[in-house]
Amino acid sequence: MNFKNLFINRRNRWRYAIMVLLAAVVIVGTGLIFVITGEEEKRLVPDRTDTRTEKEGTKGEGETQAETGSEGWPDTGLEETKLQNFLVEDYEDLHIGEPFQIENYYITNLSLVGSYFFIDEEGTLWGCGANNCGQLGIGRKTTYLDTPDGSVSIEEPQKIAENVVHVDASNFSGSFTIFLTEDGKLYGMGANMNGLMGMDVPEEFNYLWNPDKTTADLPVLLMEDVRYARCGMGSIVALKEDGSVWCWGGIYTTSSITGNQTQGCVYTKPHVMMVDAVYVTSGYFTMAAIKADGNLWTWGNNSFGSCGVDSGDRDFIEEPVMAAEDVKMVWFDQMRNNSYSTRLMSDIKGQCSYDSTTFIEKKDGTIWGCGLDVMGEGRQAKTFQLYGDLWEPRIVNFTNVFNQISISEMNHNPNKLLAECEFGWTKEELTTFLDSIDMDYYEMETADEDGSNRQHYYWAHDNCYLFMMNEYEELAQIQSFYGGSRDGKLLIGMSRQEAEEILGASYEKKDFPENKDYEEFYYQTDTGFYVLCFYKGKLERIDESLYPPESYMNTKIS
Fold first, then answer.
1. Which of 11, 257, 264, 445 has its CA 20 to 30 A from that of 515?
2. Are residues 382 and 439 in the same domain?
3. Is residue 485 within 8 Å of 492, Cβ to Cβ?
């Protein structure tokens, strides 16, 4: 098919190309591909409108977030409208403005793409999802021969361990997992990679290509007297009770200034990085520690300024450097401790991710950021290239200077903003409406080589919603991949039984022989037609239209 007007207006579409590349890397097990272009500053920065909603089952109607400022963050007396705003999944979970207690940052609910772990009220750790590297710690790996659909995923939660207080997993591929017990013992399971699980790895072995070749299929004791620990893409950082910081594994990237520096901070066994720390954390490619005096120290890949210091033409900072003072907390790539979602996720929608961006909370409650997505002081452009011939050199804009920013909780039900969207609208009416609710979008058009089978549509809200125009250039169908239906009754992730309690029984079912886990059901209501798409029994997509699926594209509405 020919693609016309691909990625028209409103967003920097490079980010989606990057995510496709990153996903491809995980699937085939290749090295990390990480390219970002900043030739134009197109990323939309949300305004300070408070779009937070209560988490289902945690607040009654009308209750508010924590008693901070009127919009959910500490009142600093500054002109907040001048601050760049970033979205977070769950504001309360960040403990902004509260005294530091490391227990506040224990992770008890972790939802990554393809993996889900949670600790129940009794302290039992459960996990489900990908197990190709034994990362569920149940004594075996899962191969494509073990499941009906040829996946490497276990859908039902598996009991892993008891007396657990904290869990984390590889924040990119999910190929290894760690957890901390009440008595300070740190365990690991999954891919050994560069010695992560304490196993020997031949020097010539490339774990990025074959993470499942050397694995720990049951939990192994990695370290004792541990206060806290986090995972990077291929590394672990741990804080011991005596304040010492230990790091092992390796940080790998193919994006660099020089084009050939692809790895750094490689330790096949736990290596002490510094002492007198009270907190540690890791992003995809960068690590940090906060010392008792409040100074922030960072190390790792600094290609996009995420270490918060100027490293010149060096891609990696091998030894910790001081990056900021009076720091209470630090986050890499997204401001999150626990995950908002409480289920196994198949994509990254709703995770408020900002690649190669670092966020800190200072002791006065203000929030600061540096790296790829941050505007302001120190913003600069450099030419980066991928190792080898994977991509031409690109101009990248970033800052290695911390700038003050603001944060607000994302709208977890953006589908409800579409309640007033009307079928039959023209292109102008639709785009005017999307502009009015501050929902980003881009336009696409496809057709066969001979010009037939033309389709014209709009993707919106980071590909969460698809607006299909019929042959008369009228809005004919809305597809929802996140949140739920426009009336808020149908929710992505619910079961078919729950959906049919709302819509009634379906009048038609469509099976897919090539994918037996995927099913479509057709429903008719007083207001129109629905097509609900289920994957492994969970609602993944909602199609709404006035007319049946076979005729909505060629039926004139207005």
1. 445
2. no
3. no
